Amino acid sequence: MSQQEQEHDQARQSRHMRRKQKRNRRGIAFGGLLATALIVGGWGYMVAHNDPSQATSTVETPKTDASAKETSKDKEKDSADQEKKKEPKKSKKEVVPEISSAAWIKRPFADVYQDANRTSVIYKADLGDVYEVLDAKDGMVHLKLSDAVEGYIPETDVQMEAPSGLKDEELLSTLGQVVANQPIDKPEQYLGKPLETFEAKYGKLGNTQKDAVNTYHFSNAGYLLVVSDGVVEAIDWMNVSAPGLTALGDPVVKTDYGTWYEGEKLQLKAFPDNGSTRLRLARDLGK
């Protein structure tokens, strides 16, 4: 082959290689465009068919230990609250313990002073009233009159030993005889009980008076309740038959201003009241 023919063949092969490389470059470019189109189209589809606002999940988020403990405490609190609601409400002072050291007032209208120096009179104690002794010194006895009130009284106006007396049944039997048309069934059962216990049976007593120790609740049926610290301490009846009390025999004390009969746990006392007699049934906390 001549030199001219060889040069012509090389030129032809060179043109062929250039055309092949050009075709390969066009294929690569087309493939890249196609891949890009697929990616963009797929992303658009996902955006169009996945609204974040409508997303839901069936997988429950696990609770941390702290949240689990809080939930447990809430359940325990709710359970305790429910149990507390089921429990009956207890009265503030339904049962009062007996007085370990007591003093009994020996005369009507006994002066009780603010302090041992007899600075001022704060209360007039009734015949037979019983109070807890806090201490005694220099002829004065320190008394607890109520949960909020204390006072001092001369030793000569009290006795420190429990008086002897009758059977409670005798006092109650005489009470039933001298009080005409008794409006209260078994009045002794309300002594030492909250005022609400009595009012639940006989209705609320709205007319009241107060002194330093007691609140007096009056009824239109001719009786009144003596209440201290929310508890019924005594019941009084007006216009009773005083001569009927003689069946009880000798009282512990008898004066022109009051007569005191003592039972086992009860007292029956009579006081002059505007030309008639007021009768009082009281409990004795010192026995």
What would your notes on this structure say?
This protein has 287 residues and is α+β, with helices and mostly antiparallel strands. Among the domains are: 102-159, SH3 type barrels (Roll); 168-283, CAP (Pathogenesis-related Protein p14a, 3-Layer(aba) Sandwich). The chain is built from 4 helices and 15 strands. The protein has helices at residues 3-49, 65-86, 168-178, 195-202; strands spanning 102-105, 110-113, 121-125, 130-137, 140-144, 150-154, 158-159, 207-210, 215-218, 223-228, 231-237, 253-255, 258-262, 266-273, 276-283. It has an 8-stranded antiparallel sheet, covered by helices on one side. A 5-stranded antiparallel sheet has the order 6-5-4-1-7, with no helix packed on it. A hairpin with a 2-residue loop joins β14 (266-273) and β15 (276-283). The protein is globular. Mean pLDDT is 79; it is low at 27-64 and 90-96.
Features of this protein?
15 strands, 27% strand, Pathogenesis-related Protein p14a, alpha+beta, SH3 type barrels, eight-stranded antiparallel sheet, 287 residues
Question: How are the elements arranged and paired?
Answer:
Blueprint: H1 3-49, H2 65-86, E1 102-105, E2 110-113, E3 121-125, E4 130-137, E5 140-144, E6 150-154, E7 158-159, H3 168-178, H4 195-202, E8 207-210, E9 215-218, E10 223-228, E11 231-237, E12 253-255, E13 258-262, E14 266-273, E15 276-283
Antiparallel strand pairs: 1-4, 1-7, 2-3, 4-5, 5-6, 8-9, 9-10, 10-11, 11-15, 12-13, 13-14, 14-15
